[in-house]
Structure formats: structure tokens, C-alpha cells
Write a structure and sequence with these properties.
single chain, 3-stranded mixed sheet, Butyryl-CoA Dehydrogenase, subunit A, domain 3, globular, mainly alpha, two-stranded antiparallel ribbon, 625 residues
């Protein structure tokens, strides 16, 4: 249900920007600190004081008690009364209070989640996050009736009530939640589902997270956690890449039983929920949450799959040729080119690169992004126990977003900074929509982030000093786009295989590995050799566990931005103003309405092909070099 503080939704916020397998934002531990030394400069650590000063902050407890008291009054005045409130003109005030409660509860949930992200191995932080999740779930469960009861109001009654301008403000949100009407259950069953989530899928999610965090990988005698082990697979040293890949495969093979059990349990849990709610397709609940039609996603999947030969197959064959081999081993897929810039980029330089690129597009965009640096809204250093990857957490409209990174000074880290700040700008602009309508569906959530990357890439490309530098930049961007589009659609196809087969019975690790190798071979082509240990690499992708079928949103966002950028290059005048209106809309408009001013339609195959053609064009240029 949209706008509620559900544990799963809080976690999904932290996953929005962590693209697994593009290997550009994983956080190595102490070995990385030794490697980069003092070359990066001083890195910012975020100040969460705008949320709460500490877990013992008196204001946190005061806010929770206030929320509990207001929820009690809200239930007394609203439960069973919504039809009368709609008829009497009081429904807008009720929704306004519900929105305020969502903001208040979201603030507490955001703080506990962000604190836990700074060090997930800290037992005090883990307990605090767990206790807070339990408490917020208990409070939120009492509010569960509201959206369910709203959906039982007759259309005629609601249409008449919407003539009130105050209620009309919430019309987009009401329209969204009413799309859930065919799938909502009786109130008591919904309450049971929500309360049991703490000991159901939430518990399995936590088991996955803590198991991953606790694994160690023996790479040439050095015990590494998952993040630095993965980071070595993009090392310039081929021996290190191979050693890391084999170590990852070996450790996951030793632990595949638990990951298989997690996968089987969560897939069955989803099947039960889908069956009770009447979803006719294994990904239908995700499509509904994303406010996107199945035929649009099917068109995206078909367009990308059809383009595998001209995109990934062709590029990796070209890369294999550059490396002087017929096929690259799977650990060499993300190997840097000899021409790639391997110098450490200091933090201050990275900041300037991104802000200059943003400012070149629109000064307002750079001004918003500048706040993240000036007001300590970014946490950039690598630290043991810190969440891997990167994300921008929107928190709540009454506060502001926070960005987490693991900055190592690599060129891809600069692109990650551009990506996360794009999210941050989007979240700042959308905050005016309020707690219920600011959240953006996943299909649009990647728009500003990928657009920010594109602006930064184009700025760097324009400044490339020679052909070698241009080739390295083009190759790096091409690989990022293949990881975002081709790889994520392959992941989506893998999930479809797993969830479909699980409906016929439990899956073995060998069956899951077979599905994994099938989609990887299909998407990557013959120029990538899937060797020893690769059949278990599915085990560490968090999206499969936390957010089934999440992954296609990355491909949607990348292709959307490619099409948007093509419009920008053709018609730059007035584009920025239309673009900012798109971001300011948050989740208040459907993607078709937001894309219409740009002359784009996601239902048209040409829309996806234009986005894919940009990637193909980069490969064309690389082939000509």
C-alpha cells in the first residue's frame, strides 16, 4: 500500500541505487585504505542530526510517543467513518493527518536504517534497528485500516467528494491506491500479513544480510569480506581477478545450502501472497507497485533480449579481441582497459567534475547538489561494517535525502557520485509533493540518477585529451550501460525462471545454478567463458532477496534517459524546464503523462530502440577506433 511505513519499503529505498555486478561501488575494507593512502583527501561523513542526534536522543522517544498518541486519536476519529467524512467534507483533513503520521514514522525509520548502514556489524546498531522496526511495524499496523477503508468508498461518493479542492490535491494518490483494490484482503488478514512479516520475509532478509556480511574469502592468503573480494574482479592485475573470482565461487559453493534455502523460502512466501491477492503473473505485484503496465515491461524485455547480439555479444567480442583472446574468462568481463585512467581521483576533484557537469546543464541542478557537500549529507569513506555500494535515501520530505558511498578514488566512483547526487536532486525537488506523493515508482526513480551520470560522462568525454582517453571513457560507459540494461534484464529473466519453477516444488542449488548459467550465456554471448564457480554467483545479489523483480527498473531508467538525452540533444531549448517539472512531480503522475511533453511513449517499441541505439552507437565508435 503506497505511502505506508512498511519494513520492506524502507529496505527498498536503500537498494534503489545499488547495481550489483557493475562492481563500481563496493566498499573494500582496510586493504583499500592502505592502497589509496592519503591521495583521496578528506572524505565527508554525514551528520544524521537533522533526523536525530543519537539512538538515545530524547526527541526520538518523544516523536514515537507523539506518533502513538496521534495514531490512537486517528483510529478513534476515522476508523469506520471514512464514508461519512467523504460526504461531509472531512476526508481531506483525515488524509492530511495520515500523511503527517507517515512523515513522522518515516523519520524514525530512516534514522535507524541509516545508522545501521554505517556499521551493520555493530550489535548495538543492529539491535536498535531491529527494535525500531518492531515498534514502527506495531504502530503502522494500527493504521492499516485507512487505505483499505478508503478503497471501499463507492466511486460515486468519492467522485463527488473530489470536487473539494483540498481533497482534489490528493487525487493522484487516491487513484494509485485504488489500483490495489482488486488485490486487497479483509482487514484482519492484511493485519496478519503485516505483523507476520517481522518473523517471515523480514527475518529471512536479515539472515541473508548478516550471512553475506559474515562470509570471508581467501584470496591469495588474505581473508576478505564480499566487498573487497568483488572489487578485485575489476583490478588491472589479471591474476588478482582470477584469484578473487575463484575464491568467491568456492566460498559461495560452501554456503550454497543456506542461500538456496533463503531463495526457496522467499519465493514460496511470495507465491502464497500472490495467490491470496489474486495476481496472475509472478511479477504482477512489482508492476503494480511500479505503476507500470505489464505490456510495457514485456516490450522492454523483448527489445533488450532482441538486442543482445548487437550490444553485449558484439561488445564483449570486441573486448576479447583487445585482450588478444577468443573469449574472456568471466572474471575478466569488467577488467579495465590498458588505456583506462587508473590514477586516484581526489574527492575535491570528483566534486568539481560532477558539479561542473550539473551546472553546465542547469545552474539550479548544481546548486541543489552543492548542498549535499556543504551540509554534510554525504557519507563517503570506506569503513569495516559499512553497507557496500551506494545509495541515496530520500528519508522524508520534512528533512532531506542522505547519500552513502564507498569512495576509493576510481573513475567509476566519480560516476557513482554523479548517479547518487542525481537521485538526491530528484528527491529534493519531489519533496514538495508531500510524504504520500513524493515517492517515485522505481521505473522513474532512476531517471535523474542516470541522467546525472550521462551529463558527467558527456562532460568528461568532451574534455578527453586524446583518442586513447576517449576510447577508455567510451568503453567504461558502454560497460556501465550493459551492466544496467543487458545484465538487469538477464537478472529479470533469471528471476522469472526461479519463481516459475518454485511453484512446482523446491529447487536445488544445481537447478538455480543451471537457470543462472542459461541466462548469463544467453545475454553475454560466446565471448564470455563462464568457468569454474560461476554457477553460484547468483547467491549474493540482494535485489533477488529483498525486492523480487526490482531489477528491470534499472534497464527501464537507462533506456528512458537515453531517449530523453536524445531529445535534449535535438531540442535543447526549454528542455531543462520540462525536465525539472518531471522531477518535481515525484509520484504524482503516471510515466505516460510525464513523458508526453518530450514526445516519448514507453508503449512504443521505438522508445526502447532509441535508448538501445545509443549504446549500439558507442560500440560502433569503439569498433572504428
Amino acid at each position: 500500500m503506497k505511502g505506508h511505513v512498511y519494513p520492506r519499503k524502507m529496505r527498498e529505498k536503500t537498494l534503489k541505487n545499488l547495481k550489483d555486478f557493475d562492481l563500481r561501488a563496493f566498499s573494500p575494507d582496510n586493504f583499500a585504505r592502505r592502497e589509496v593512502g592519503g591521495q583521496i583527501g578528506d572524505l565527508p561523513e554525514w551528520d544524521l542530526g537533522d533526523l536525530y542526534k543519537s539512538p538515545e536522543d530524547e526527541q526520538l522517544e518523544a516523536d514515537l510517543k507523539t506518533a502513538e498518541s496521534r495514531v490512537t486519536e486517528f483510529v478513534k476519529s476515522c476508523q469506520g467513518q471514512l464514508v461519512q467524512l467523504a460526504a461531509s467534507g472531512g476526508l481531506a483533513a483525515a488524509i492530511g493527518e495520515y500523511e503527517a503520521l507517515s512523515d513522522l514514522l518515516g523519520k524514525a525509520g530512516s534514522y535507524s536504517g541509516l545508522l545501521y548502514a554505517t556499521d551493520s556489524t555493530n550489535p548495538e546498531y543492529a539491535k536498535f534497528a531491529g527494535d525500531m522496526r518492531d515498534r514502527l511495524t506495531a504502530i503502522s499496523t494500527r493504521l492499516l485500516f485507512f487505505e483499505l477503508e478508503l478503497n471501499r468508498i463507492d466511486e460515486d461518493v468519492l467522485d463527488e467528494a473530489l470536487k473539494d479542492p483540498a481533497l482534489a490535491h490528493y487525487a493522484p494518490w487516491l487513484s494509485d491506491i485504488r489500483k490495489e483494490r482488486p488485490h486487497q484482503l479483509d482487514d484482519e488478514i492484511e493485519r496478519l500479513f503485516m505483523e507476520k512479516s517481522v518473523t517471515g520475509y523480514s527475518a529471512w532478509n536479515r539472515l541473508f544480510d548478516e550471512t553475506i556480511a559474515g562470509l570471508r574469502f581467501d584470496v591469495d592468503g588474505e581473508e576478505l569480506s564480499i566487498a573487497p573480494a568483488l572489487d578485485l574482479m575489476s583490478s588491472p592485475d589479471g591474476k588478482k581477478r582470477k584469484a578473487a573470482a575463484l575464491a568467491i565461487g568456492k566460498t559461495f559453493a560452501q554456503n550454497k545450502r543456506i542461500f538456496t534455502q533463503i531463495t526457496n523460502t522467499l519465493a514460496k512466501d511470495k507465491e502464497i501472497s500472490d495467490r491470496w491477492r489474486g495476481f496472475d503473473d509472478i511479477a504482477a505485484s512489482r508492476h503494480l507497485a511500479n505503476r507500470v503496465e505489464k505490456e510495457v515491461v514485456d516490450a522492454l524485455e523483448a527489445a533488450v533480449a532482441e538486442a543482445f547480439p548487437k550490444l553485449s555479444h558484439r561488445y564483449y567480442a570486441l573486448k576479447a579481441k583487445w585482450f588478444g583472446v577468443d573469449a574472456l574468462d568471466h572474471w575478466d568481463r569488467n577488467a579495465p582497459l590498458p588505456e583506462e585512467d587508473t590514477r586516484i581521483i581526489p574527492w575535491d576533484e570528483a566534486r568539481s567534475i560532477v558539479l561542473d557537469a550539473y551546472g553546465g546543464f542547469a545552474p539550479e541542478m548544481a546548486q541543489i547538489a552543492q548542498q549535499f557537500f556543504d551540509r554534510n549529507w554525504i557519507d563517503a569513506p570506506v569503513r569495516p561494517g559499512k553497507s557496500p555500494g551506494a545509495f541515496s535515501a530520500s528519508t522524508v520530505p520534512s528533512v532531506h535525502p542522505y547519500v552513502l558511498m564507498n569512495y576509493l578514488g576510481k573513475p567509476r566512483d566519480v560516476m557513482t557520485l554523479a548517479h547518487e547526487l542525481g537521485h538526491g536532486v530528484h528527491q529534493v525537488l519531489a519533496a514538495g509533493q508531500g510524504a504520500l506523493m513524493a515517492p517515485t515508482p522505481l521505473t522513474l526513480a532512476e531517471t535523474a540518477s542516470v541522467f546525472g551520470e550521462m551529463l558527467t560522462f558527456r562532460s568528461l568525454l568532451a574534455k578527453a585529451p586524446d583518442a586513447k582517453a576517449r576510447k577508455a571513457l567510451l568503453a567504461g560507459k558502454t560497460e556501465d550501460m550493459l551492466n544496467t540494461v543487458v545484465r538487469q534484464i538477464a537478472f529479470y529473466r533469471f528471476e522469472r525462471k526461479v519463481h516459475s519453477a518454485r511453484r512446482e516444488g523446491e529447487l536445488t542449488a544445481e537447478q538455480i545454478g543451471k537457470f543462472w548459467l542459461e541466462v548469463q550465456a544467453e545475454s553475454l554471448g560466446r565471448a564470455i567463458a563462464l568457468g569454474e564457480g560461476y554457477d553460484v554467483f547468483w547467491a549474493y545479489v540482494p535485489h533477488f532477496v529483498h525486492s523480487p523483480f526490482y531489477v528491470y527498473a534499472y534497464a527501464f531508467g537507462d533506456c528512458l534517459v537515453n531517449s530523453l538525452y536524445a531529445v535534449y540533444r535535438r531540442e535543447p531549448d526549454g528542455f531543462a524546464a520540462k525536465y525539472f517539472k518531471l522531477l518535481e512531480a515525484g509520484g504524482s503522475k503516471h510515466h505516460s503523462e510525464l513523458l508526453k511533453p518530450f514526445g516519448l511513449d514507453a508503449r512504443d517499441p521505438a522508445f526502447w530502440n532509441e535508448g538501445l541505439d545509443m549504446i549500439s552507437g558507442f560500440i560502433d565508435e569503439l569498433e572504428g577506433m
